[in-house]
Amino acid sequence: MRFTNENGDTMTLADNLTLHELLDMGVSISVCEETDPDQQIWLAEPEDEQ
């Protein structure tokens, strides 16, 4: 599983991670259509632990 951020930097993680596990690791997840990347469909960010 490869992720690319807005700056074009990439990171590779294990392919068997779930979205919940990624959130637990502190990864923000934004899902959008390739044809319209400005139209955000779903956004999840890690909860602040206090």
Distance between the termini: 30 Å
Percent strand equals 35-45%
Helicity, in percent? 10-25%
Gyration radius, rounded: 12 Å
Largest sheet: 2 strands, antiparallel
Strand tally, please?
Answer: 4
Q: Strand order, biggest sheet?
A: 1-2
Q: Residue ranges: pLDDT <50 for 5 or more in a row?
A: none
Overall pLDDT score: 75
**Molecular shape:** globular
What is the H-and-E element order?
EEHEE
Q: Tally the helices: what do you get? A: 1
Which structural class do you get from the secondary structure elements? Answer: mainly beta
Structure description:
The chain has about 50 residues and is mainly β. It has a domain at about 20-50. Helix content is about 10%, strand content about 40%. It has a two-stranded antiparallel sheet. A hairpin with a 2-residue loop joins strand 3 and strand 4 (about 35-45). The relative contact order is 0.19. The model has no long low-confidence stretch (mean pLDDT about 75).
Q: Features of this protein?
A:
1 helix, 12% helix, 50 residues, 4 strands, mainly beta
Provide a quick synopsis of the model.
The protein is mainly beta. It has a domain at 19-50.
Layout: helices, strands, pairs:
Blueprint: E1 2-4, E2 10-12, H1 19-24, E3 29-33, E4 36-44
